[in-house]
Amino acid sequence: MGLFVSGQSGSLYLAKTISSVVLTVDKLTPAAFEKHSGRETAKKWKNNVWVIVGGEKIPLSKTVLLKYYNEALKKCNRSNRRSQGTKVFHRDEFVGCIECGKERRFRLRSRDECRLHHNAMADPNWKCSDFPYDKITCEAEEERGSRKVYRGCTRSPTCKGCTSCVCFGCELCRFSDCTCQTCVDFTSNVKA
Q1: Helices (H) and strands (E) in the chain, counts
Q2: Looking at the DSSP assignment, which residues form a beta bridge with residue 24?
Q3: Among residues 28, 54, 55, 67, which is most buried (max CB within 10 A)?
Q4: 57: Cβ–Cβ under 8 A, 6 or more apart, which residues?
């Protein structure tokens, strides 16, 4: 069993076999399919693809067909992660200055950057002059509020926090040589 999608010269063919039932979608170009659906909602494509089951038209998202598609996708992603090494993503975070109250952005893309942010969060007396990336003072402008909403999430630029960009602890952002409770708990749970 499997969901087969193949393209030939810009055309799509879709076929699925479930216990001797074959569902086929006519030859359509992506533009023709979009026009046929009457919507431009690429993220909701599962609701725009319909399957006829027992003479009844049902959105693909409400059938078991996606179960096989999603499982195959998960297996593919797991094998890719192993071959590329696990890449955990962290969104940008802000730390406030104790003197002026301005928030400064910390990028969290590497272990070193995560350590700098971790140390800043652990320091109750963190000041703008301690900022590791640039030599700044409290007089320097704070990042605009409209810019702060962009935190670097891979799913959505203005994400407020999702499973893709919010980390509750990993080897990139937790440190065995740190004595804070969060790192101690993470390290002890990893060893257990």
Answers
A1: 6, 7
A2: 15
A3: 28
A4: 50, 51
